[in-house]
Amino acid sequence: MGKCYLVGIGPGDAANMTGAARAALEEAELICGYTRYVDLLRPLFPEKRFYTTGMTGELERCRFCLERASEGLCCALVCSGDAGVYGMAGPALELGADYPGAEIIVIPGVTAAVSGAALLGAPLGHDFCVISLSDRLTDWAVIEKRLRLAAEGDFALCLYNPASRHRPDFLRRACDVLLEHKAAETVCGLARNIAREGESVRILSLKELRDAQADMFTTVFVGASSTKKIGERMVTPRGYRT
Amino acid sequence: MGKCYLVGIGPGDAANMTGAARAALEEAELICGYTRYVDLLRPLFPEKRFYTTGMTGELERCRFCLERASEGLCCALVCSGDAGVYGMAGPALELGADYPGAEIIVIPGVTAAVSGAALLGAPLGHDFCVISLSDRLTDWAVIEKRLRLAAEGDFALCLYNPASRHRPDFLRRACDVLLEHKAAETVCGLARNIAREGESVRILSLKELRDAQADMFTTVFVGASSTKKIGERMVTPRGYRT
Lengths: 242, 242
What we know:
2 copies of one chain form a homodimer.
Chain A: E1 2-8, H1 19-27, E2 30-34, H2 35-41, E3 49-53, H3 58-70, E4 75-79, H4 89-96, E5 102-107, H5 112-120, E6 121-122, E7 128-132, H6 140-152, E8 156-160, H7 170-178, E9 187-192, E10 200-205, H8 206-209, E11 218-222, E12 228-230, E13 233-235
Parallel strand pairs in A: 1-4, 1-5, 2-3, 2-4, 6-13, 7-8
Antiparallel strand pairs in A: 8-11, 9-10, 9-11, 12-13
Helix pairs in contact in A: 3-4
């Protein structure tokens, strides 16, 4: 029986990793993950064994990690942000049924909704929805329905995977759905390359967001009707002042 | 001009604090916060100055902190979990307009949606909504509407503030709304006293959740239709296996 840690390392740099995440990586004899994220860790743990796969190799590295753990090796499968939010915790727990010798332990991390929000101010200060615009594993009809209901409920929104090479117009399509229920002047925000080189934020209206550029390293925030721009920050009040 | 850090310290113990949060607290000359959370930090920073207020003293300690920062003192206002999610980042940024001498910097942390999810498995592995059941600052009609729309959209849900002494039946009322659109057998979870003494989790059906006990140290998770119980874990698949 070996441990298989599912470790959220937070955004970009090591400063946003928790003490528990660091301890799990220190304990692990083998660290598995997507090449790009593991490369962030190599300098911190120069003595470790690493196993990396590319963007679409999720299940392969997950199985590899569970297999080694069930053989008794202490393993860590790393995810950017948090392992539970569109991360590998779900797939690992599903596959884990085939590896009773692997003890799966999820170590929480700072997901992009939270780290991007901190950069922008407090866009998620009241009730909010998190929706991925990726249709790789979800039908667009489901995504659109959820966007519409979230807008109808006047939730603040955080959108993951707003665009990729294969779906350059998804953010525009999402904005068109949101504009049916949200005002064109709704305060929105973009957080790019959070805690990495080229980190930047931008505050803009929903109308402007419709035409904004986003990529897979962008996290998008759409305000509720109460969301305000205060100086250069985006704030969704919880209501303390009213 | 002094810094005013808004620091999310994560759940309960220091292990879930990020490196950046710890660095901000080390830099701060004065640490402000709710008595209970500051007490967790005193042993880590025995030499610091502290300023604490009770549960409803949010605005008072926020003003105190901003005032000291605008006088040039480096201050940290601490929040349990993340400062942006139902935390003090919003109020501080709103009040901050009155204290141009205070430079507000938000340091993200592991919010209860993420830490509770990790304990339970991966209940938030796909699109989800975060809703507070507290009607202290929000009308129940708004809460109910959001619950209804979240259920209609088949989101997974994380509910903050599910109950308190003054509203012992709010979780039951919320479940009754959710049961209009979600099946009685929907997989749900409770995470109590996350990363603190008495930490526990429980997986149960929505029907059972309706009659479950919750308090202000409980975070509630309600699954989507795809959410499964796998062993003793609650998992909302992202769809990798389909």
